[in-house]
């Protein structure tokens, strides 16, 4: 009876931190989408808003970490419960990084605004950001619903993001070769594309943690990963 | 008496995971140094060795996480003890990332080997890697000895690394402008410099966690950080 009572208290606490994770995920998705929109529409105030908004994302990570530490100290969870709490902390850390990438995109949008635009680039970046935002959303949904099938799907779909990155990388290289005045802008655009690709990697990592949590085994390494043109790890 | 016995068991367990952290740190420092050396001396077998060696670093992170989870479940630490265990997991996660950057450097060294070299670049990269390796070592030493003074010093010294990165960024930009045939090589070199700069950021993060652990407060944000030429977050 007492044990059951404690177990329910743990579940309640866990639900509360999971709600914080979903809120954090929502903020990160919006930041990414707004930053890409700010780049595409040259909207400086939107870019500035994304930069400022990152503080709220960082604060949520702190809150989640504090709450998880409290949960571990108060409820002393073991086995799957403990693993779940540790996974929550890892996801919060991933989301904080993704928030940084969105902030960075916003900063570069402001810089790129002052340069001659590369035709088509901002639109491609925005499409890539949209794709990655969906990936992140699905990874978090898979976590909350402990849906290993959806998680497996996220892992596969990250390959499309890698292919989008590869196509952009080659496009930017061509623009730089054609006219050296494009080099600075293309360096910034390349960094943006690389960082969005990294958000996709974080979504994959979250998906892999969901698979580990639900099946007890890490997926084998045979994920069909497009070799990145930038040659990144 | 019983409590004292349990406390000592916790300290013993903690010392064991700290030893694993130091071992992991040693492997990451060596990987970084070897990868930079492989680039500088065009040593393909050394580069290949670094690439293969990353598996051992990843395996150590897994072991540390498992051990920390076991420690939390068995000893139910609270307050500073719990915070210490969570910090160990964060440091392991940072080191795993740094290992990835070293592996990535090794991969790019192999690619760059087939290109016309950029004069002086590999030497500069190697000096930067050496500087960052020392920073990482000092951050870990500060953690194990709970030395807030050394940790504060690490934070300040990261600025030098940022300045080295800025200088390299401008150098690569110049080479690309001068001759478009340099663009591919400079893109790879720029990524390498950026990743080494990120290892410095991880060393700073570890140092900040040491300050938090020893003083209970996060250092204020007034770290004298050089604005990065690449404009990164």
Automatic annotation (TrEMBL), chains A, B:
<feature type="domain" description="PhoU">
    <location>
        <begin position="21"/>
        <end position="108"/>
    </location>
</feature>
<comment type="function">
    <text>Plays a role in the regulation of phosphate uptake.</text>
</comment>
<dbReference type="GO" id="GO:0030643">
    <property type="term" value="P:intracellular phosphate ion homeostasis"/>
</dbReference>
<comment type="similarity">
    <text>Belongs to the PhoU family.</text>
</comment>
<dbReference type="GO" id="GO:0045936">
    <property type="term" value="P:negative regulation of phosphate metabolic process"/>
</dbReference>
<dbReference type="InterPro" id="IPR026022">
    <property type="entry name" value="PhoU_dom"/>
</dbReference>
<dbReference type="GO" id="GO:0005737">
    <property type="term" value="C:cytoplasm"/>
</dbReference>
<feature type="domain" description="PhoU">
    <location>
        <begin position="125"/>
        <end position="210"/>
    </location>
</feature>
<keyword id="KW-0592">Phosphate transport</keyword>
<dbReference type="InterPro" id="IPR038078">
    <property type="entry name" value="PhoU-like_sf"/>
</dbReference>
<protein>
    <recommendedName>
        <fullName>Phosphate-specific transport system accessory protein PhoU</fullName>
    </recommendedName>
</protein>
<dbReference type="GO" id="GO:0006817">
    <property type="term" value="P:phosphate ion transport"/>
</dbReference>
<comment type="subunit">
    <text>Homodimer.</text>
</comment>
<keyword id="KW-0813">Transport</keyword>
<keyword id="KW-0963">Cytoplasm</keyword>
<dbReference type="InterPro" id="IPR028366">
    <property type="entry name" value="PhoU"/>
</dbReference>
<dbReference type="Pfam" id="PF01895">
    <property type="entry name" value="PhoU"/>
</dbReference>
């Amino acid at each position: 009876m007492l044990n059951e009572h404690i177990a329910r208290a743990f579940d309640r606490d866990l639900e509360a931190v999971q709600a914080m994770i979903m809120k954090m995920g929502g903020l990160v998705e919006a930041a990414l989408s707004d930053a890409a929109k700010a780049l595409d529409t040259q909207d400086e105030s939107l870019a500035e808003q994304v930069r400022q908004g990152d503080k709220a994302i960082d604060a949520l990570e702190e809150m989640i970490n504090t709450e998880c530490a409290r949960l571990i100290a108060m409820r002393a969870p073991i086995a799957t419960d403990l693993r779940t709490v540790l996974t929550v902390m890892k996801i919060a850390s991933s989301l904080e990084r993704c928030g940084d990438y969105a902030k960075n995109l916003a900063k570069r949008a402001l810089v790129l605004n002052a340069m001659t635009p590369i035709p088509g680039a901002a639109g491609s970046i925005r499409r890539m950001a949209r794709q990655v935002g969906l990936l992140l959303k699905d990874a978090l949904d898979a976590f909350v619903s402990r849906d290993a099938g959806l998680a497996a799907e996220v892992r596969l779909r990250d390959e499309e993001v890698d292919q989008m990155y590869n196509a952009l990388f080659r496009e930017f290289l061509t623009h730089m070769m054609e006219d050296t005045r494009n080099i600075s802008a293309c360096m910034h655009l390349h960094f943006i594309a690389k960082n969005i690709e990294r958000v996709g990697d974080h979504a994959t990592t979250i998906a892999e943690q969901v698979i580990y949590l639900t099946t007890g085994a890490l997926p084998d390494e045979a994920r069909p990963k497009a070799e990145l043109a930038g040659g990144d790890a």
